[in-house]
Amino acid sequence: MEGHYLVGNQGIYKVQKFLGEGSFGKVAKCTKLGSPECYAIKIVKSSWAGEKEFKMMKLIKDLDPDENHLIKMYEWFQFHNMTCIVYELLDKSLHDSLMNETQLVHLCFIRVIAQQLLKALKALKRIGVAHCDIKLDNIMFAELDSVNVKLIDFGLAVETKKLSTETEIQVPPFRAPEVILGIPLDESVDMWALGVVLACLYFGNYPFPSETEYETIRAMVQIFGLPEAEVLHKAKNKALQAFAAPGDFQSARSGVLSQSYPPKSAAF
């Protein structure tokens, strides 16, 4: 499909190359005929998934994307039974850029990223939206030569009031304990995921094992202690068995940072 044209509402776009591919579709770097600008167009195979993401972007359109560190959307259109969403073209994700580093990320650098993403979450909370998929791949640098990041990919985002324990959200390494346990959810799931992102940057590893939900929640309990009884009473997940299993704190400490990130080393 490289070299092909996509006919949008605001112009005609030429596909230059594909930047990535996910479960719902692909992202292409495109130029717009008659303009020197480049764009990132998300080409979604499922019309339902594409329209869902577009609706979320409509909810946040009144937020200043630059001020609040959110990706900017320009337009949405249907083309050959595919949903196309036109976004600003950003640089690299935290995952791709930091995997090439050979030294630990400086705390001052992490602090700036934290401040920017907390601003993004505050803006989303103000309009009642939860992102639900915060991870290293979904945070991108606007420019690599400046510490300016943006939150991207609102394909799993939902209105906070519509979050339920049946909602399938977050990839395992960044999954909040309330999601694992099946207790009522709110925008705090994004705050947890952001915390995991920052821990990854600081340690160079995923902070919790994530092969199974059991070992994930067990590691959390051994570090943070048991949740309150009233919280456990609301839980619906079998991972609750973790609370009945004995374990010492030292063994948890030795295993909590055992999953290497990035895979090639314990530091970037």
TrEMBL record:
<keyword id="KW-0547">Nucleotide-binding</keyword>
<feature type="domain" description="Protein kinase">
    <location>
        <begin position="13"/>
        <end position="268"/>
    </location>
</feature>
<dbReference type="InterPro" id="IPR011009">
    <property type="entry name" value="Kinase-like_dom_sf"/>
</dbReference>
<dbReference type="GO" id="GO:0004674">
    <property type="term" value="F:protein serine/threonine kinase activity"/>
</dbReference>
<dbReference type="InterPro" id="IPR000719">
    <property type="entry name" value="Prot_kinase_dom"/>
</dbReference>
<dbReference type="InterPro" id="IPR050494">
    <property type="entry name" value="Ser_Thr_dual-spec_kinase"/>
</dbReference>
<dbReference type="InterPro" id="IPR008271">
    <property type="entry name" value="Ser/Thr_kinase_AS"/>
</dbReference>
<dbReference type="GO" id="GO:0005524">
    <property type="term" value="F:ATP binding"/>
</dbReference>
<keyword id="KW-0067">ATP-binding</keyword>
<keyword id="KW-0723">Serine/threonine-protein kinase</keyword>
<keyword id="KW-0808">Transferase</keyword>
<dbReference type="Pfam" id="PF00069">
    <property type="entry name" value="Pkinase"/>
</dbReference>
<feature type="binding site">
    <location>
        <position position="42"/>
    </location>
    <ligand>
        <name>ATP</name>
    </ligand>
</feature>
<comment type="similarity">
    <text>Belongs to the protein kinase superfamily.</text>
</comment>
<protein>
    <recommendedName>
        <fullName>Protein kinase domain-containing protein</fullName>
    </recommendedName>
</protein>
<keyword id="KW-0418">Kinase</keyword>
<dbReference type="InterPro" id="IPR017441">
    <property type="entry name" value="Protein_kinase_ATP_BS"/>
</dbReference>
